[in-house]
Amino acid sequence: MTKKRLFTFLAFIMIAALSLTACKADPWKNIGAEDNPIIFAAVPSGETERVVTGFEQVADLIFDATGLVIEPFVATSYTAAIEALCADPPQAHMGALATFSYILAAEKGCVETALISTRYGNAYYNGQFLVHVDSGLEKLEDLAGKTYCRVDVTSASGWIVPSIMLKGLGIDPETDLAEIVDAGSHDAVVAGVYNGDCDFGTTWVDARDIVVEDYPDVMDKTVVIALEPDIPNDGIQFHVNFPEDIKATLVAAFLALYDTEEGAAAMEEAYNWGGMQEGDDTFYDTFRQILDASGVSAAEIAED
């Protein structure tokens, strides 16, 4: 190849590379504008329509306060939400991941925590083992050989912690139960126990509250036989490349929602959160230590 042809060829390659770079839009340019809204990954822990309605109210209030446009990405599971946040380019820019899902996403290096939810002023919550009142089941040792309704494999209170507790009693959920049913949400687990579709289920305390309109006697027909130890609450996370100035604006706006009855009611409807506080990744370190001591691997569970 002559020097002239080589120069022409190299110039062509450089132009092509520059063109491809230009075509790859910057996902953070004018983020929050009408033509580039902030995509919020939401995973309903209860009835989807109610959660979405609450989220839309929250988004409207945030827009009124900041001028930033937020649109929901309603994920079918926390795994789908993690995939959206960790995609390149990201398909979601922020989200509300549950405890274990956040730990998994953080291991992937794509998100970081900014806000921690609180309920009754507490940044921790507990899970519960739920059985039907007529089941005859009274303690965890009775659950061997039974059918188990879990939320999904990434739910801390709906699978991770209860599976650790059962293993501690010599009951391996993978081999010592009749069947494991993935209900998909906490309210679906409650419904499964109530309707007799499964012998027991695990949810956060007290997920029965969100189905009481559909099942008015749920508190009488279901019984809590055991509680789970403290679990750090979920919260709001941002992609690691989210612009810091806009993040600070949003953090302040979300915290300010609880200064008004309208904002607090919208967050309660969307997420059952009574409040929020600022926090970072270190908030989850104690829970990580529990997982490590139990031999639980976030990556392995995600592959299940």
What does this entry look like structurally?
The protein has 304 residues and is an alpha/beta fold. The protein folds into two domains: 158 residues, D-Maltodextrin-Binding Protein, domain 2, CATH 3.40.190.10; 103 residues, D-Maltodextrin-Binding Protein, domain 2 (3-Layer(aba) Sandwich), CATH 3.40.190.10. 41% of the residues lie in helices and 19% in strands. Strands 2-1-3-12-4-13 form a six-stranded mixed beta sheet, sandwiched between helices. The chain is globular, with a radius of gyration of 23 Å. The termini are far apart.
Secondary structure layout plus pairing:
Elements (H helix, E strand, L loop, with lengths): L2 H21 L14 E5 L5 H19 L3 E5 L3 H9 L7 E2 L3 H9 L3 E8 L5 E2 L1 E6 L14 E4 L5 H13 L10 E4 L3 H10 L4 E5 L13 H4 E6 L3 E2 L2 E5 L4 H13 L4 H11 L3 E4 L6 H9 L4 H6 L1
Parallel strand pairs: 1-2, 1-3, 7-8, 7-9
Antiparallel strand pairs: 3-12, 4-12, 4-13, 5-11, 6-9, 6-10
Helix pairs in contact: 2-9, 3-4
Kindly report the average pLDDT value.
88
- The fold-level CATH name of the largest domain is D-Maltodextrin-Binding Protein, domain 2
In total, how many beta strands?
A: 13
CATH class of the largest domain: Alpha Beta
CATH superfamily of the largest domain: Periplasmic binding protein-like II
Task: Identify the overall geometry.
Answer: globular
Summing up helix and strand content along with how strands pair, one would put the structural category as: alpha/beta
**H/I helix tally:** 11
N/C terminus separation = 54 Å
Strand content: 15-25%
CATH architecture of the largest domain: 3-Layer(aba) Sandwich
Query: How many domain modules?
Result: 2
Radius of gyration: 23 Å
What string, H for helix and E for strand, traces the elements in order? Answer: HEHEHEHEEEEHEHEHEEEHHEHH
The largest pleated sheet is described as: 6 strands, mixed
In spatial order, strands of the major sheet run 2-1-3-12-4-13
Portion of residues in helices? Answer: 40-55%
Low-confidence stretches: 3-23
